[in-house]
Amino acid sequence: MAWAKPQYSRTEVNAAGDTIIAESPKDVPLEKILELVEELHTALKAINNWRSSHSYPLHCLKMTLKRRAQKVSRDAIVAQRTKRLPSIEAKLKRWEGMQLARMHDIGGCRAIMRNVGQVNELVGTYEESRSKNPQRGPEFVRPYDYIAQPKEDGYRSIHLVYKFRSSSRKYRVYNGLRIEIQLRTQLQHAWATAVETASMFTGQALKSNVGDESWKRFFALAGTALAIREKLPTVPGTPTGDDLVTELRELYNILQVHTVLQGWGTAAHKLTGTRRAHTYLLVLDTRSKNLEVTGFREIELARASEAYLVAEKAARDKPERQTVLVSVDTLAGLRRAYPNFFLDTAAFIEAVQQAIGDSGSK
Length: 362
Known about the structure:
There is one protein chain. The chain has helices spanning 10-21, 30-52, 55-72, 85-94, 116-132, 186-202, 213-229, 241-254, 257-263, 301-315, 331-337, 346-356, and strands spanning 77-82, 107-113, 139-145, 158-163, 178-185, 268-273, 279-285, 290-296, 321-327. Strands 3-4-5-2-1-9-7-8-6 form a nine-stranded mixed sheet, with helices on both faces. It contains twelve helices and nine strands. A hairpin with a 4-residue loop joins strand 7 and strand 8. It has three domains: 54-186, Beta Polymerase, domain 2 (2-Layer Sandwich); 190-262 and 346-356, no CATH class; 268-342, no CATH class. The protein is globular and about 60 Å long. It has 362 residues and is an alpha+beta fold. The longest helix has 23 residues, at 30-52.
């Protein structure tokens, strides 16, 4: 199949990133508006090419991850995605001096393991491979261990960042492109997807630790509750013991977490395209609770990338519409890897209720 290749210099890619986060000037003539629209169109085209160019390196690292994760556990869930345009914009705005060409998570893949023992075993596999063959395969950049040191918002996972490296004339065009590998447990995944679901419906960037303080505090406390259950380090600035249970239960009831998250229900979804797909485009309308799932075969990756950009353009001024392009092995695995797009927070709700000792809290 034909993989997308970079068509723009890193300077042009960074300029495109600056364009999409630039504030629109006020009281400008029509000619200037048309010029700005064309400039934005050009920038989005460059960004989509840059994002699509990560597909081959991402595919290579995902296949290695899949092989290693399933050697640890046949139940491992492995998925990949290219970064959503709203997430790219948010990161460029949030981090001063951030440049698009320097982002290490434009392409990302993850393995969801049953427990932390399996995560550690998988990490050990990567460490052993690097020590035996440091010059072979992708170049290791650095780890981010948010399990040993959880983020203040409650996020926990291990990230491994690699730069693609190949001596092949055919593939050296991708050298230097960065891919992020995420390794997390099922409980950590349940927390992360619940945050994303809440963000979709509250219109707050909770995933980026921006939004209502009560919701942010609730998810930080929930992160600690799940960490205690896994016998792992807790979230900074949160209590433990009875104080944790008391505060978590209080916010759970005040925010009506069960009613809010479960009340959104399960998204009705419609599948178009082949069921034997390699890649899926998900378009969720949080207002109508409808999810459109379009499947693309492996040879249709370029068409999938184009459809992704079209869907993102259509959703640009519609916060109720969320889009993502992902790759999983089966349609059933799609829901397990991305429950937030199916509005499924049952696993998270059950874990929190267990932590506060009340399966009937509403």
